[in-house]
Amino acid sequence: EAKRNDKHGWRAYDPSMTDQRTRESILADLLEHAVEAGQLGVHYQPIVDLATGRTVGVEALARWQHPDFGFLPPSEFVPIAERSNLIHAIGMHVLAEAAGQVRAWQARQHTDPLQLSVNLSPRQLLKHDIVTDVVAVLERTGLSPAHLTLEITETAIVDTERAAPILARFRALGVRIAIDDFGTGYSSLQYLLGLPIDGLKIDRAFVTQLDSTTRGAAVAEAVVRLGQILGLDTVAEGIESPAQVAELQLLGCTSGQGYLFSPPRPAAEIEDSLNLIPPQTVG
Ligand code: C2E
Ligand code: MG
Ligand code: MG
Ligand code: MG
Question: Which residues belong to any copy of the EAL domain (predicted)?
């Protein structure tokens, strides 16, 4: 197979390109059966209140364990799922499993109910009946809409005219919307004026800069401040050092997540950080 090259017309056969395409189509086929086959799971990463150190929420992250190919990261399969339209089935599977899990954890809490954050890709957001689909899962699992945050990227709201009415319907239901990877997209800041957004997730790229160069720290600080001035919840992503926590606390950033607190892990393995009432023991 050949591919057109800008300057020189047809370029020679490129094995790496073909391998990549073959790999993608193989993975897309495998992914189609992954949900039914029970290969798709969910890991949870605690979201910590930076003022108190308490876990106030969890982000649900899709995990794919294939019996032959092993663990495949979301950075590889989510884009494939997005292109092949499988993202709807996968996204709903993650939402349903996570909502049921968080509901079960909430029943074992003395404190404010745990919040659930779920990622929603651009294609999912623009699916015509996405609001109905999400509501159906909430009703089935009993999770309150007020305890759900949908994380969307700036790419998803580039088409502001299409995104606005969908976000407004979620808002009317009490579901919260956060901008994921804030500051890394190609989007303008104009959407912050008009769209019903509740929070910004400060991308790890900025958090990493907090304790390195002064220039990096200035940009990181400006991103946190912008969220604060707009009255939005600010969640710092990818916190890896106590120095970053100290900086973020000084800036007044609301909450954060990162390997410093915990990587994403299976449900049973993060229960320790949730301060739950022990499960009922019989006899
Ligand atoms: P994201 O939503 O921005 O999720 C945060 C990513 O950062 C996760 O990668 C998490 O494991 C990683 N992370 C968290 N703390 C740290 C840290 O301290 N250091 C470093 N280096 N990384 C950290 P993960 O799980 O591989 O997911 C990658 C991306 O795949 C997600 O980025 C999200 O965009 C997408 N994704 C994952 N699950 C889903 C899903 O169920 N639906 C959709 N639509 N997208 C998903
Ligand atoms: Mg996210
Ligand atoms: Mg993110
Ligand atoms: Mg990210």
Answer: 24-278
CA angle 11, 13, 17 (to 5 degrees): 100
pTM, whole model, 2 decimals?
A: 0.92
The strand ranges marked E within 54-161 are: 55-66, 70-72, 115-119, 148-153
Give the pLDDT confidence score for residue 160 in this predicted structure: 87
- Residues 38 and 154: their CA atoms lie apart, in Å, by 31
207 contacts 258 by C-beta, under 8 angstroms: yes
% helix / strand / coil in the chain, to the nearest 5? 45, 20, 30
Nearest ligand to the C-alpha atom of residue 257: 1
Q: Does ipTM come in above 0.90?
A: yes
| 178 contacts 146 by C-beta, under 8 angstroms | no
- How much is the pLDDT for 159? 85
Q: Give residue 243's pLDDT band: very low, low, confident or very high (50, 70, 90).
A: very high
Element (DSSP H or E) covering residue 43:
strand 40-49
DSSP, res 40 = E
Residue 15 confidence (pLDDT) above 60: no
- Residue 256 CA, ligand 1 centroid: distance in Å: 14
For residue 178, which phi and psi values (nearest 5 degrees)?
A: -120, 145
Q: Which of 170, 97, 96, 100 is closest to 132 using CA atoms?
A: 170
